[in-house]
Amino acid sequence: MNNLIFKAEDSSVKLTFCAGIPEVTNLLPSEAKCCVIADSKVLDIHKEFKDALISKGYLIYEVNNPESDKNIDTFSEIIDFMQMNNMNRGDCLIGFGGGAVTDLAGFVASSYMRGIKYIQVPTSLLAQVDASIGGKTGINHGQIKNFIGSFYNPTEIFICIEFLKSLNEQEFLNGFSEVLKHSLITSKDTLEKLKNSSKKILDRETATLLECIQESIGIKAEVVANDFKESGERKFLNFGHTFAHGIESINYEKPIFHGHAVIIGMLMALKYSSDLNYLSSESYSLAKNAISEFNYDFSEVELDAEGIFEAMRSDKKNTDAINLVLLKDIGQPFLYAESSNDNLKKHIKEFIDDFKK
Ligand SMILES: NC(=O)c1ccc[n+]([C@@H]2O[C@H](COP(=O)([O-])OP(=O)(O)OC[C@H]3O[C@@H](n4cnc5c(N)ncnc54)[C@H](O)[C@@H]3O)[C@@H](O)[C@H]2O)c1
Questions:
Q1: Active site residue 222
Q2: Which of 39, 171, 190, 278 fits as disulfide partner to 183, beta carbons 3.0 to 4.6 Å?
Q3: Spatial separation of the C-alpha atoms in residues 143 and 292, rounded to whole Å
């Protein structure tokens, strides 16, 4: 077991790295009345964890289709479930699953009786290094992701890499995009280390994986501690994301992994940083080579310059200019407002022509 305490606004979050699943169950509260909002698929895979929750007498609300159930109807059903079971302000909510479930659980916790204590047990790599860290909670509304939400921190987060063993390679890489992103915006050394450990990471070798997850969480936790409400530095965590949202929008009918769109988005941002002469060719090559060490499968991703550009432009955050995070070097992000539509469209088109080769 290994702890990290990080501050975010007026609360502090205790993050515990657990050696195995039994350690997680031992650390979950025994006295308090708890309700777990759980991904049913993950519960079925990790039956020993489910049995432990049952033997603790916890209430369990199962979510069957995390991303499509991350909505106001499920939110309302969970509130009914908790109310019927007389959950009170002093009781505890637990989110168990990937990022869709931890986001939903966090939002329920922030709203139920004006906010109750909650604990996150993230089970996907994306949720461990990103979604459960930083206090952003939310649900989707209409066609818009995370349209309703809040900033609300859990009191504790338990990270256990044993849960990650049941992710397939592309699901694992989906989360790994955020690990790569954290290194690209903060440290050349960390990026080099990831590149040199790619085989061990892909084999999910325990010590290596744990080290890179701890480092990645540490980076996000520090950024969040400095800028909880995203008025400055936290915006750098959007590196690659403006392009990625455009890519995800045009793949709406047949959704792709968010992390895969982020990787392509980061490659677009790296190339743009290089084309605009901010990023040296050495750093650009290092970044591209590091990313290419990992086996991302992009075969299902549709890319269309006009569509991506239009989706980026119609984003509510891009009113006068399109806001991008670019790099002056690895570890040196900055905000760049692109007001020339033609330049950006040309860049996206050239990138795609090259990417498809
Ligand atoms: N709050 C934030 O700051 C933040 C940041 C990034 C992403 N997000 C949100 O996170 C979500 C994406 O996260 P995600 O990729 O974890 O999505 P997800 O929760 O939909 O999980 C992806 C898939 O992995 C499965 N899964 C989860 N853990 C597993 C395990 N251990 N073994 C096998 N299968 C497992 C799930 O059942 C699901 O099928 C999105 O809703 C996104 O909006 C939030």
A1: no
A2: 190
A3: 32
Q: Which helix (H) or strand (E) holds 306?
A: helix 305-314
Residue nearest to atom 10 of ligand 1 (CA): 99
Q: Which fold has domain 2-166?
A: Rossmann fold (3.40.50)
CB 113 within 8 Å of CB 88 = yes
131-150: b (≥16 Cβ within 10 Å) or e: bbbbbbbbbbeeeebeebbe
Ligand 1 centroid to 210 CA: how many Å?
A: 19
Query: Which residues form ligand 1's pocket by a CB distance below 6 Å?
Result: 39, 41-42, 45, 66-67, 70, 97-101, 103, 123-124, 126-127, 130-131, 134, 136, 145-146, 163, 166-167, 171, 174, 258
CATH number (1.20.1090.10, 3.40.50.720, 2.40.260.10, 3.90.180.10) of 174-355 reads 1.20.1090.10
Residue in 103, 129, 158, 257 to alter for ligand 1 test, most ligand atoms within 8 A of Cβ: 103
Pairing of strands 34-39, 59-63: parallel
Q: Which atom of ligand 1 is nearest to the CA of 39?
A: 37
Q: What is the pTM of this model?
A: 0.95
